[in-house]
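Hello forum,

I keep getting stuck at the same step: I have a sequence, I want structure tokens, and every attempt I make locally crashes halfway through. Rather than fight my setup again tonight, could one of you with a working pipeline run this one for me? It's a single chain of 260 residues.
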Amino acid sequence: MSKVVGYIWMHPDAISTEKVKAERNAIEAYCAAHNLALGGMQVDAGALGNALERPEMKAIAEKSEITVVVASMVSLGRRFHDVATVLAEFNHKDIRFISVQENIDTGRPDGQQLLKLFVTIPQVASWVRPPKQGAETKVFVRSREVLHNGGTCPYGYTLDEMTNQFVVNATEAAVVQRIFRERAAGRSLRQIANDLTRDAIATKRGGRWQANTVKTILENVFYTGDYQCQGRLYPNDHEAVIAKTLFAEVNSAQEILQVC
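Reply #2:
Ran it on my machine without issues. Output:
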């Protein structure tokens, strides 16, 4: 039998001792009524940001084959993609999820059907990752919330705060395409940088272009539509602004040596 843990999260605007106690009681009562041996209660009171980066939620998500019980789906987050993110990660880790108020249990067929429903929603469609080999009956979803955990958004893109999806910035993307074209034509990093500064084109931070800035863009596989994170590559994750063939051309061994 898998370990059972209760989980409570509350937004800073909604924290109160009474509310935490009420959710704790609801979780304990559900477990008692369904013969689930509750092994502990983990509380993220007031933690903001990425749902999977809350201290207690992060600890839970690092486990596998456990059961997590919440009083309500609100404990996963206020935003839709927070909820989808956590459910996706739980599914990926074989973590059974139970929400008392909504009567959701991913250990039941109807709970699994809920996960399948999520991947038909347009907002979630681009988060779907192929199922693991031999796991035809499971739905594996990896959320953009997992893939983008902060840091500077690459030049040429903006990050939609509502959906956490990368969106092409047409003006900046045109500059990126220009950089790749000129590099492929044999121009040096310094020449490209000087011309961009001369043309009064600002960098992401509004400063002057440097050879290293241009080099960073040229070596970033992100512009091909792929996302690289912690050693893993997620192909066709977002809209590309340059072709993979062009990226390969300018990043050949010969081109990399031509840094002046």
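The CA atoms of residues 157 and 168 lie 5 Å apart. If your local run keeps crashing, start a new thread with the error log.
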